[in-house]
Write a sequence for this structure.
């Protein structure tokens, strides 16, 4: 019977040993130092080393503190290896001068798939919180005396020299710029009116004069042909005002843009020559026809793209 009980005792001890082996976890608490002044931050760390099958549930730090105030929790530092290592970091503070004992802190954890909560406690940590020694009989003064900075005369002279140099360079640049601006040519836009527009306006003005209606037949024919000849000079680059009618017609035969008005121009110029040189007195219908032909000659020879009536051009003034 004794042997049987001994056998069971050995088995129970063996299983307990296996469970303890399966729950291999170590915990250690510490602070960055043991002496603090009132209000200093106390950096408190709990370091854990445990097996892979252990999972940390919580650390009951806040509920365990009595003489210290919990400030905040910093992110834990975790590492893996044959055993897990985790460091939980906290900032505490003490506001009373005393010896403080941070008590053992419970660390709760589970093992494997077992939902049972296990607990292990840290070691206690002793620290001292001191006040700053103050001599009540001493005078109140600044922490440090006011700092007097001696004048650096060399540096001041260098700065003054640089400022004067910059001012002189700016003055020279401005004077040169002003001279160039005063001597520069002022460009203003010059308006060029297309030759056909000038000719059409002059023909309308001539109509308004009503010369032939006032029996100024010769003057009328001279002016209407003069308008067309001047138009030919500007449009076809010919000395039309100096040429006889026959020579002008010959020159116009070599101009492509004038091919469609050769016969009309010949008739127009011949009628005018008869009035001016042969003292021919035409019928009123001929006078009217001369104006119609003049308009037609201009309309038929104006540039194809004549949508822009005024063309700006830069000119020096």
């Amino acid at each position: 019977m004794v042997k049987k009980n001994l056998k069971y005792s050995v088995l129970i001890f063996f299983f307990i040993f296996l469970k303890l082996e399966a729950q291999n976890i170590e915990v250690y608490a510490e602070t960055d130092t043991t002496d603090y002044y009132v209000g200093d931050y106390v950096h408190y760390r709990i370091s854990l080393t445990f097996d892979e099958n252990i999972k940390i549930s919580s650390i009951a730090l806040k509920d365990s503190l009595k003489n210290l105030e919990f400030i905040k929790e910093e992110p834990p530092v975790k590492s893996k290896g044959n055993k897990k290592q985790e460091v939980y970091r906290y900032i505490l503070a003490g506001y009373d001068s005393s010896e403080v004992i941070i008590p053992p802190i419970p660390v709760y954890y589970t093992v494997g798939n077992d939902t049972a909560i296990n607990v292990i406690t840290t070691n206690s940590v002793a620290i001292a919180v001191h006040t700053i020694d103050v001599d009540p009989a001493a005078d109140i003064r600044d922490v440090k005396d006011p700092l007097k900075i001696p004048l650096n005369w060399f540096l001041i002279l260098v700065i003054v020299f640089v400022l004067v140099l910059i001012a002189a360079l700016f003055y020279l640049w401005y004077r040169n710029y002003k001279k160039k601006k005063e001597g520069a040519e002022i460009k203003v836009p010059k308006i060029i009116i297309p030759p056909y527009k000038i000719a059409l306006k002059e023909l309308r003005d001539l109509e308004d004069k009503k010369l032939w209606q006032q029996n100024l037949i010769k003057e009328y024919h001279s002016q209407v042909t003069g308008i067309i000849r001047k138009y030919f000079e500007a449009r076809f680059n010919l000395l039309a005002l100096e040429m006889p009618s026959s020579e002008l017609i010959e020159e116009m035969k070599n101009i492509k843009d004038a091919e469609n008005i050769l016969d009309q121009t010949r008739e127009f110029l011949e009628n005018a020559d008869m009035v001016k040189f042969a003292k021919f007195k035409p019928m009123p219908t001929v006078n009217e026809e001369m104006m119609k032909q003049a308009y037609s000659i201009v309309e038929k020879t104006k540039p194809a793209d004549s949508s822009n009536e005024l063309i700006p051009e830069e000119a020096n003034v």
The chain has seven helices and twelve strands. Residues 153-183 form the longest helix (31 residues). Residues 37 and 130 are 5 Å apart (CA to CA). Confidence is low (pLDDT under 50) at residues 8-22, 310-317.
